[in-house]
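FORM 7B - TANDEM STRUCTURE REPORT

SECTION 1: FIRST PROTEIN
SEQUENCE AND TOKENS:
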Amino acid sequence: MFDHYMTSRTRHTLEERKEDLVIAAIAEFASRGLDAGSSQAIAAAAGISQPYLFKVWKSKSLLFLASLDTVYDRIISVFEKAAEGKPPSVETLSEVGDEFESFSRSEMQMLLQGFAACDHPEVRALVVRRWMELIAVLERIAGRGGDPIKHFLGVGLLMMVARTADMPESALLCETQ
């Protein structure tokens, strides 16, 4: 009697559920932030109940941290992959910057929400640790630190703000025409 139900139902592993929740959480937290983000909306988007969400992630804060960590992982991975096989140089760093277009608006918003949530000590600790890791990756790609990294990050932050606010391309060029 229950055979059909059991065979047609897709079962997900705990790791698959965690991934589903992180994907849903990035969308929710990117637009609403840690404090206003709704665990109920995240659970619904992932196709599970809110109580089950809290079985998988013990708190909304832990899910926020995992979501932010996932975005940093992706950014670092994309930059490292783009630099693979190329010599460390400022030119390689510049080429890696072209990969910025591959990041979604939600990913950019999630980073900004991470900065905004730095009043939470655990968020601040993650942001500082991952930002320093990103700088170290960029230094390896460039073969040096200093001004090239500051320029890369400054332009990247400008692009992040422009992308999340849907600004015209002229905003990236810092032109008002």
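SECTION 2: SECOND PROTEIN
SEQUENCE AND TOKENS:
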Amino acid sequence: MSGVAESTVSFQSRFARELPELAVPWQAEEAPEPRLLVLNEALAGELGLDLAFLRSPEGARFLVGNDVPPDAAPVAQAYAGHQFGGYSPLLGDGRALLLGELPLQGSSSDGDRLRDVHLKGSGRTPFARAGDGRAVVGPMLREYLVSEAMHELGIPTTRSLAVVATGRPVRRDTMLPGAVLARVAASHLRVGTFQYARATDNPDLLRRLADHAIARHYAAAAQAGNPYLALFRAVVEAQASLVAQWMLVGFVHGVMNTDNMTISGETIDYGPCAFMDAFNPAAVYSSIDTGGRYAYANQPVVAEWNLARLAESLLPLINEDQEKAVEPAVEVLGEFRRRYSDAWTAGMASKLGLAGHPAGSPEAAEVSQLVDGVIALLRDGPVDYTQFFRRLGDAALGNTGPARGMVLDLAAFDAWAERWRAMAPDASLMDRVNPVYIPRNHLVEEALDAATAGDIGPFQRLVAVLSEPYRRRPGLERYEEAAPESFGDYLTFCGT
């Protein structure tokens, strides 16, 4: 271990220390020729990491887990989960390691200011099952790209610090270049973590896990009359807000298993995911979601289902008499639909430039009808979701032609637009909430194909475009265009 790394990086190991039953000490697989592909300099600065070190050969070895500071305690985390509705009692980090926690710069080390540093693709662990524990360049760059795009859109998300090529080919359908993603998160606590702890029938472990989650994310819950019910309510609120934000930008997660739902309310695990091109409630972009369980329109329903599994796990903490715990847990779970609906409706009102009308007013009722009307227009034909809302911003200023030309039923659009414009939509608000640029699927694939072949340039350009998603810039027209017809049906893969 080099001296520069030791002086630059100092980890806490709070998860490993406080919850050893959920942490298996482990070491990353040796990478023969680690080489930095992409580094998130802004995020590195927030974590107090030295850029010169991270760009050095020693830094590359640190970022794949081969050289870590002596205060780091790399562990593979244990968790369970419902995958496509079927329960797996033991999943865990099969190809990942938690190095530890770092405080954000300018903050104390209080839980809500800590950030996990987590490696993905670092080799087999005891949870690997039949997998090789490795990852390849394309999927790791996808996670970097989409997670950072989500961050710039203002949606809570895990983030990406770096992608490092390992120098080892990995067999998938063909031989592909291997890579490790260094991911940063408020924590990696999942609904599946609580399911695992509950299944151990160890009340002390479950309580310590809940206390750990409260300290990391929801400190106010500790002061509530029932801290564990307050924890559950906080997660319900966070997830209702998060999924509404996904829906508002047309994001389809693809694998909403309970092990992919965080307690913090951050988006996690960008494997089979995509942003919708044409609006389609049944949109599915995951190669393994053959039944459409995690389709675009199903995401709020699945989120509520996942939260019910969290409630089941927390029952012994909510009340020692679990029969008495059911009623308050169900009551809190019942808040999800209202909170989701409120977040969705408020978000759609903003997308239409009609925010600020108090609930129960005649104006709010009209806005609700206009929201229903615009969804009906989108359902009626293949309308590019992102382009349409951005062009409505022009319509708010009087130029209805571009948006009108995207729909099939012109009479229906004209009738809707007359009512909408009578409400005096705020075009500047619309431009602040309706992105010009999203990670369009054909551009993502173009960038990943080039990077896999050794040309990182298209990827870096796409990341730069997505760093300012709401500001239209000259010369970037191709980045806001819909996919060509030749692109065809689109599926994504998890990369394992």
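SECTION 3: OBSERVATIONS ON SECOND PROTEIN
Residues 3-187 form one domain.
The chain is about 45% helix and 10% strand.

SECTION 4: SIGNATURE
Preparer initials: ____
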